[in-house]
Backbone:
């Protein structure tokens, strides 16, 4: 399964915690975007950890799931940040 | 076709221009995320407009395309911003 995770986290402390969790499971490809292949089990674990950190009345996390990666096409305008670890 | 567009635009003027373009075609659902159903033709038109605005050596725009929306599942943690026009 391929997933894209985007987020608006209103507090910097929570934001860093969420990113730290997501980096264990996926690739950080834009400041507010993680993506990559992941199993259903690992995704559930990841989301449970994120859910423990965010403030559900203030923060927003979207998880877009595509079962078969062949059904997803990605186009890039400008730079592809790939693994953002190399840039920050 | 369903698309999700995410972006990192390093200059506020360009950022506002990109958002203004995207709002003509899609729903603004997080600060750096637009999504919605769109035809191939309209998407090409939209991307041509965005391409005219961004600085390709600095900015990053990802266009995730799923031909059949049934192949995409979206889960939300926290708040679903829906149409961000109502929030800003």
Residues:
């Amino acid at each position: 399964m391929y997933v894209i995770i985007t987020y608006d986290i209103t507090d910097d402390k929570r934001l860093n915690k969420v990113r730290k969790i997501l980096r264990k499971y996926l690739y950080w490809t834009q400041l507010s975007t993680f993506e990559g292949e992941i199993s259903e089990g690992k995704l559930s674990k990841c989301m449970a950890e994120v859910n423990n950190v965010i403030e559900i009345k203030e923060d927003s996390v979207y998880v877009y799931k595509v079962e078969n990666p062949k059904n997803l096409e990605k186009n890039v305008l400008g730079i592809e940040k790939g693994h953002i670890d190399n840039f920050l």
